[in-house]
Amino acid sequence: MFAARSLFHGTILISLLSCSSPVVENDTDQDGARPTYTMDHHSHSRPNEAVITHLDLDVEVDMDEEEVRGTATYDIQAEDTRSIVLDTDGLFIDEVTDANGAPLEFELGDSTFLGRALKVMLPTPTKRVRIAYHTGKGAKALQWLAPQQTADKQHPFLFTQGQAILTRSWIPVQDSPGIRFTYNAKVKVPAGLMAVMSATNPQQHAVDGVYRFKQEQPIPAYLIALAVGDLAFKSVDERTGVYAERSVVEKAAWEFADMGTMLKTAEGLYGPYRWSRYDVIVLPPSFPFGGMENPCLTFATPTILAGDRSLTALVAHELAHSWSGNLVTNATWNDFWLNEGFTVYFESRISEAIHGPDYAGMLQQLGRQDLLNTLVDIARSKHPEDSKLRLDLEGRNPDDGMTEVAYEKGAAFLRLLEAEVGRPKFDAFIRDYFDRFAFQSMTTDKFLGHLQEHLLTPNHVVIDVAQWVDGVGLPSNAPTPISDRFDKVDHEIQRWVEGVPARELATSGWSTFEWMHFLRHLPQPLTEARMDELDAAFAFTRSGNAEVLAAWFEQCIRNDHDAAYARLDDFLNTVGRRKFLVPLYTAMLDTEKGRIMARTIYGTARPNYHSVAVHTIDELLAWKDTHPPVNF
Q1: Is 407 annotated as catalytic?
Q2: Is-above-0.85 flag for pTM?
């Protein structure tokens, strides 16, 4: 998607490797031998031959030139081989040496959507490799923000997003979720700015702009993360806190006041938190996801700062990833449901413990609505098989598999298992699963074998597991989410349909989830007068709650409610969260006026989006970089 510079030092290898590599299948053998690996089609690395075990990163961040440059030095384990293969994407490889500074020969493979393989020749014995490099202008993991794109509008900002295969665009690395390693980092940034990473973090600015980090737990490459900006820190309790720009940090700390309670609740469910601190950084609004579970430091969108703590279920979700995803990790992106299905289930359990079953039930019902909509879209797509839990993404961008299927169908499968054996037995099974496979990677086959041996067979449970894992759609025995609070919302919608004025509806005390359900289930079509009535009664267009605002905008697009379009334009030009972008741009494509509006807005908004969002919306709109803006 991005045009990378073509100048590389070193020998160019025309056809280096097939686009597949092994990832960890089992932990170390009983005799202490190193792990064995299965194939990861989204990495060039060959860890059965040579694998990285530790990274020492020493880089400088140039905010003016928008460049990261420095060295990545790896400890490696190698079998009887004379090379190690890493992933790169758009990187300039300046020099490769061994631990003593002796040059090592290296080769770069062809460019594909996976980037370029970097093959380093290893004179025997070689246990440490140092790679000097710098990033190109189009590094997909990096988003460089000008001061005006930040909250405080005083200093530039940088953040990284590595999932799924983007870390290779800012660090040469074996970029597969099945390969885990520890890391230390030294990062130099301009004076006055702070750097934070997915590791131990500073809480004060360094006078010289040099920051040092340590991640003592082995993690996959996609969880290496960096953010640089004029950040401040505020503690929530002894183990949790918030980083954000100075004008945001107090608001964020208030919003996330329950983080410590969430952490203790999670530990009570499934065992000790193994990552020292749990902090959250609130990024500028162009961040493409709600949150990213980078160890020790969740990266979060400011769109969850609703001012009433109503959207902090996202924090529960990212916290849950400290067990499901970060502790036990999908071995390949075909196994993505093992990360996200477990996390949605775990998030719901945290929310239920803190807020009660009705709250968790509403979350589950909204998730089911999203899943059913996604299944309809997938069934109409060129890849209807993507509604399976076990995916086959070979030859495709792994980002294509990051849909509600992994999240909500995966969680529904786990809820079915809970219902079959009872919560106490299921909780014991999950707790043992996290303990037994801590800091390891998991394939779907390995999980299913473990499930059969340790849960289904001992409890004499028979389930058509294949229908869930390898069947399309949602099986008929999926548990139905329960909460009568949406029934009450449906009643108020019906009253409005029957003529009760919007101002007289019984909406007092409604949560964000109830307002989302209300907006999603309004009758269609609606007249301009009816849309005006709703907005006058509930001030949707002026809402500061991004979830409510996005749901309202969908209604405005469907009913061509011009009065909200200026705010819609502003929203799409400032918020880069893909969850909101996709349905709004998609809704606009239903009419000719909407298509013109979508392309016009995107023409100005596109530079504000991260490459992850750009990839998705470019494809949705069939966008070309040279596409001219259209006035309407």
Answers
A1: yes
A2: yes
